[in-house]
Amino acid sequence: MEAFFEWFRWLYDETGINLTFVYDAYDRERMIDGFLMTIWLSLVCLFFSVIIGIVGAWLQGSPLKWTRRLVNGYIQFFRNTPPLVQLYFFYFAVGNLLPKVATDYGGEAPLLGNFAWAVISLSFFAGAFNVEIFRAGIEAVPRSTVEAASALGLTRLQTYRHVTLPLAFRVILPALNNNLVNLVKTTTLAYAIAVPEMLYVANQIWSDNVNVPEMMIFLLFAYIALVGILVWSMNRWERSLKIPGFGTS
Amino acid sequence: APVARADIIDVVKKRGVLKVGVKADYKPYGFRDPSGKIVGIEPELAKEVADKLGVKVEFIPVVSSNRMQFLQQGKIDLMIATMTDRPDRRKVVWIVTPNYYSSGTNILAPKKFGFKKWEDLRGKPVCGIQGAFYNKKTGKEFGAKIVAFKGTAEVYNALKAGRCVAFVYDDSALVAQLQSPEWKDYEMPLPTIDDAPWGIAVRHGEKRFHHFMADMIRGWHASGRILELEKKWGVANTPFAKAMHAEWRYFETGK
Amino acid sequence: MAWTPDQPMVSLKDVHKSFGELEVLKGITFDVMKGEVVCIIGPSGSGKSTLIRCINALNDIQKGSITVEGQEVNDPRLDKLELRKKVGMVFQQYNLFPHKTALENVMMAPLIVLREDQQEVEERARMLIRKVRLEGKEDSYPGELSGGQQQRVAIARSLAMNPDVMLFDEVTAALDPETVKEVLVTIRELAEEGMTCILVTHEMGFAREVANHIYFTDRGVIVEHGAPATFFDDAKDPRTREFLSQIL
Amino acid sequence: MAWTPDQPMVSLKDVHKSFGELEVLKGITFDVMKGEVVCIIGPSGSGKSTLIRCINALNDIQKGSITVEGQEVNDPRLDKLELRKKVGMVFQQYNLFPHKTALENVMMAPLIVLREDQQEVEERARMLIRKVRLEGKEDSYPGELSGGQQQRVAIARSLAMNPDVMLFDEVTAALDPETVKEVLVTIRELAEEGMTCILVTHEMGFAREVANHIYFTDRGVIVEHGAPATFFDDAKDPRTREFLSQIL
Amino acid sequence: MSAHRPQAGHGGGSRAAGSPRSVAPARAGPAGAATHGERGAPLAVLHPVRMPEPAWNEGGGQWRLRGRHGLWLALIFLLSAGAAWAQAEPGRASVFDIIVKWTPLLLKGFVFNLAISVMAMSIGTVVGAALGLGQISLNPLLRRVAYLITQFFRNAPWLVLLFFCMLLLPFEFSIGGITIPLPDWIKAVFGLSLPVMANVSEIVRGAVSSLPSGQWEAAESLAFTRRQTLWRIILPQCVKRMLPPWMNLYAILTMATVLASIVGVSEVMTLTGEVLAAEGGRTDLLVPFYAFILLWFFAYCYPIARWTVRLERKYAVKI
Ligand SMILES: Nc1ncnc2c1ncn2[C@@H]1O[C@H](COP(=O)(O)OP(=O)(O)OP(=O)(O)O)[C@@H](O)[C@H]1O
Ligand SMILES: Nc1ncnc2c1ncn2[C@@H]1O[C@H](COP(=O)(O)OP(=O)(O)OP(=O)(O)O)[C@@H](O)[C@H]1O
Ligand SMILES: [Mg+2]
Ligand SMILES: [Mg+2]
Questions:
Q1: Is residue C228 less than 8 Å (CB to CB) from chain D?
Q2: With a cut of 0.85, is the ipTM above it?
């Protein structure tokens, strides 16, 4: 292992290609933490954004005018403002309005930290798109199929759970897939509020070591790999949900 | 291999414009006024260089992560951008000696915490600026958890909100900040470390320009120009500037 | 006022139904007795589907009354779920749940709505699938079945709720002659077992074969009705005669 | 070897066609003379659509030969565009160009493909629209027309290329009886003017009315054929008899 | 002869006409087709939906736009500015004054954002359209290459692509002795046009493949060449389908221009940071300033979104 690390140090001395995060223990640790942070942040945001999508689509079908308006306002706000500015706004504006709690180092800090706010604002951001996607999926389920369910005596909730949602899910998977890929790409923005994810760490490392090109190339491949894994597993899921004799291909 | 190119002083004179990379978010060393112009101590120094060369000056705003690239690429001819003079940076660009300025690292922290030594920061969240070199040291040697933001405005906000216990930064900037009544409950309690000089940089291989700049800097120190500028922009005279003035005045004038 | 088998199973009295401005049903009245098979025919857009959907409370009506087993369908206090346990409906487009196998489609309603025992339901479902002659197709998804097969699964799915009345809306449209025949046989068997059936159809041959009584609707009213023999060969109304003359 | 009108207009010899593993056509042979109207009937999936698409080179074939006016269709050197100028096709789903009006739909191919004169083409197109009895609908978009009307625009669009042969693939499926009648009248008029027509249909009444000759296909082979009278009333093959017996 | 044409024919006719493809014929597998009587049957499930295009870097959703969402945002801004003003200690400039003072500079930056977005969109659209046509080309090699390029640039984070252009492109280049400078913001334009290109490519491909295959076949059987079919039949229908997602992409791009701040282009976010620094890091300014910027973006992007929805509705009826 050490020899492997040393080889990269040698690489730097010989060629100037400086991959500190391989041979420098401190940088390596940071980079691994950053990588894990990106994955963790992505997973948590994926989860919540899908939940928001499902609930939001359900609320949008609500008979109450104000519920629908609220959901629409939410969607418009998040779709039409830059996510980077949203993050700032949430973290510094809304975040500081929350009650403070005592911290274990003796001070008082706002209730939610930067990771929590990154999750909240990125989930709401991606969720705004997911609501749209889910609603389109639900609309794709023909009324006649829903009628068939109610003609069999299923209640509204039973129909939603057993018929509408499973069918809608199959229609929207490609779109959802795409949206989630974008979510993973967008987690890079969390660096702005100091969530130590991959870009944040890379930024620190290239500032310390003046090796921007190397770090950028590494980042690019790391993200392509992450997105690749996501796309692959979503495709597998899509295939496993495929109904025989149904669908375009 | 570096391509042989025309001497930069000739190029600048022919072009009639000197392009200087300066900070635009580092009050009072380089920042914007409401008209969008970049002003501050460093832009004034840059202006003097241009005057000496008999050309106009153009300020290009840079940040820590791109300033050396810009110089290498030739996008700027000269960099006066609060850059600490460090050996690994000298591999990339030519840093002019003598150094023109210096600053150490210290923290801004609420008085109530009563920090006494750097080790007190261990395990606690400490705010910083993204890309600053002392982040690594503060994290690695003193065990603080660095929470770095892009600009000082964000950091001051986070510090006040209690998201971190201290702000690790250049002591000169912190001293300026402490003069505001808004920060009366805060202090700069630790011994300044890493008192490291700032370097003006030129591209690798620009021998003539390097000499030219070295003369400029010596002149500034000898004449007390730096001390003057500090006063003008509301900074207490730093020991480094005083010492350099004393040294170079003696050297030049024998007094 | 309990319902007795000598009263009409389904009874419509002066039913009016509008969609906004458009009046689709303009006073429809008829009775269907237990075990009867009734066909409703008529040009496209004449309100046949609407009529049949009103019986199942999928549409509400503006005026008149519809009763099933003596119970008023249009009563807002009516428990629609109760009604739908009594009335089964088969749609033109089958409307099977494509993400469930044939067997699961049949089992779904008894399991979810009636919360019956899994084992029992499965047994009955398999029996029904045999009844519609689909043995061996239990585990096929709708997409793997032919139209006629899908239609028969849809019939079995409705039967699984043990309804007293079955409604069929153009169940043979879009099927080829051979498949039509298969569905016809299934419906005829149901009728023989005493199921009350109301059918909407475009296929005159089919109506003639299966019905006890035929109603011809046009523009929201019943223009003519009668037993198949008299209806087809001896229609009195000119509109009916013209419609029948178009049949090739 | 020039083609003369006494030779078959369309001639199929031992045509085989597979989709991957699945052999859909297993040796189809028949001739169609100029001015003849031929109907192909048979159960669903028996390869009718495939057959008709092969004549138009929309599908290629694996074995055998198809000639149109003596020209081999399956020849890789064949200029497909030349073939398609001779053969018109009308699809079940109409496939009109939705961004063009009825008139533009009809005019498009002569203008773009044949580069004919705008004025002349428009004149002929209006004539064709009159011919399919759609006067007044020239400027309607397909989305504004009923199914039967769209179908007739599709027919006019094919006719605008002055084809020698017209192929119709289940043009009356999804239409109601009265609209079927309209389309039937149009096709019959074409036949009377001497157009060679090959039709695929599920409607036996339609086939009986319009065809000179009927072919019955099942599982990729022609099981029986003959003039309508003999075919319908006197079929010899048991499979055909079974199929016909299902018709109500 | 056919006296009752309109009345009777209508229901069935318009049903078929309204959604010619709503019931996609699902073909049974080979096994099913081999046995007599078994066959694919139309499956009445799932309308062919127009998805609200997948994501925030492409596509157009169709949400209902009602109410004045912008007002809410303005309210947030005023409230936050008011709160900051209330907290402000006496003797200091009020938040409003400060914002007014800096507005001209920030507006300059915002206009710069818009300029970047317009240029990146133009470049991305032209190259992306070519790439999209490559993706549907008959040449398998071209198709493959176009596909790979599209996927690569679609899956890479925008920010990383931006950095790449900043680093890889020279600050000036010479053609035939003339030296053309390549300022940062031009590099940002290139960096942003890469993902735009990939998304436009997908929009083109998606729109073309969303047309029913019957359109190709009909044109083919009328003896249209492939080129004629593509340019006269397919693309004219696609333009309408592509317009909404394309406009949506533009709005997304506009919002992404703030990313250029990270690579040091003097656009509105960079300037905001610099302004805050120039004001001496006053903490009460942060919120009003960012709300102010949010408001501007909303004011620019929301009308585009509305317009997109309107177009979408309009074309949804026509097609
Ligand atoms: N939900 C609705 N809203 C408005 N009008 C409707 C609705 N449903 C049906 N209609 C109209 O009511 C009339 C009758 O429709 P209905 O479906 O009952 O006709 P039908 O006799 O079943 O015709 P088909 O033979 O074509 O199925 C038609 O003119 C139709 O346009
Ligand atoms: N592109 C294709 N790929 C694979 N199999 C196909 C394809 N097209 C048709 N088939 C199969 O070929 C067989 C014949 O299809 P075809 O469409 O010719 O039948 P048909 O006689 O027209 O039936 P229908 O009356 O239902 O239209 C079917 O089993 C079908 O599944
Ligand atoms: Mg109906
Ligand atoms: Mg067919």
A1: no
A2: no
